[in-house]
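Q: What would this complex look like in 3D?
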Amino acid sequence: MQIKLYNSLTKTIEPFQPVETNTVKMYSCGPTVYNYAHIGNMRAFLFADILQRVLRVVGEYPVRWVMNITNIDDKTIRDSALNANTWKSEMGSQSDDPIDNLLKFTDFYTKSFIEDINTLGIKAEDFEAMPRATDYIEQMKGLITDLFHKGLAYVSEGSVYFNVNKWRQVDTYGKLFKIDFENFKPGTRVDTDQYEREQASDFALWKLKKPGEPFWSFDLDGQNCDGRPGWHIECSVMEKEILGLPFDIHTGGVDLKFPHHEDEIAQSKAGYGIEPTLFWCHNEFLEVEGEKMSKSLGNFFTVRDLMNKGLNSLDVRYLMLSSHYQSVLNFTFDGITASGKARQRVQDFIYDIFDNNAGSESADAVSLKNRVYEHLGNDLHTPQALAEVFSFINNNPAKTLNSTTRTELIEFFKDLNRVFSVWEINPRAEVEILIPQNIKDMAEERLKAKQEKNWAKSDELRDKLKADGWLVKDNKEGYTLEKI
Ligand code: AMP
Ligand code: ZN
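A: Here is my prediction, written as structure tokens for the whole assembly.
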């Protein structure tokens, strides 16, 4: 089916066509691995996940999906520094070598990141590669040297900067984002990796080493520039090296349009002579009370926080997928509860479809599938796709449907679940209900209290479990837990 996508470059919804007829090459800006990713970040990765799944299932394309790991930037360097209080014993012991420390620190958070996306149903095997910036330093130096030779980069105090003013005489700077050039002073430089000023400045391609920080040797035409790459150059290089240019789709959150993606476009076009990608796709924010969820505002939850509260990861995934990626999503716990109910409603219908007591009514499962795919292919309209499913469920009680329709529906839900991945496509009895860890812990604590004849405590814990939706039934072996 023809897929349509909103392209931030043209600011319109366009029919999607890959460069090579039969494969989609997609690059997603990945995590900066200096801490556990929060669920705001996860919205960006779940958006990329649903996009690559729709391309595979609805568009029937093979997808080469690459997500980079930003392991060199201001924050990873700051937090991996010798004796920083952010160091954990699981990372191993620190050494005198700052690069070694940087790798131990960031590999720890890369591993955690892969565990966390896995918890939310993003499969590691769907990626062709997850390149680390530190593995592409030589190629970064190569691109910077080319930009320097073309007169589009200059050295100032050992750091190398991209000359925005010169580039503007060649091509537009500000293709994705309206940049304020009114107060633009050519030659103004910015050093930090992430800057929110919506004003153009020459940005760092490479930064001079600072005492105690990791650095790589770099001789730029006889000038000593030992130091480390800037954040933007990392993506320009990794995407070109792995996917080749141009590739088809580049994803990231809206906050990356400027400066990160503008700078990526400028560097790649200036250095390689070609823009990175045909489609730029950006997800909106996950907010908390009207503000972007972010580390710096402190208003964030990690995936681990939510799991420790006993939430079901499938409900979290469903919540993120049930709103359109281009609308702001306000995070609340009530929202997760409502998602859980909606997800369960579909799940119950699927269980009922497997029941043997078929009725005599038929329903048009083929047209349901067509409508749902139409919405998914139309710029990933997941909410409308789900609305079609609910409307079908509401109008066709499972027990009335005949066995042919049931068979067709099972096939449909199997396909739909390749996109959403939030349901069990099995008969009810075969499904093992997952008991959250905090519930298991509470039940164990209650058993212990009972063995110690602390009846008050054991009753209190039984009530607590009940309030959380779990019934404890005692037996000779101990107890069982049943979902109420
Ligand atoms: P970072 O690890 O900060 O480089 O961010 C990783 C990804 O998360 C980027 O694509 C960001 O645009 C995205 N992102 C960060 N905060 C949010 C948020 N609150 N909602 C949605 N996406 C976000
Ligand atoms: Zn990037």
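A: To summarize the key features: Residues 29, 31-32, 40-41, 43-44, 70, 252-253, 255-256, 283, 285-286, 292-294 surround adenosine monophosphate (ligand 1) (CB under 6 Å). The first helix runs from residue 39 to 57.
Q: Very helpful, thank you.
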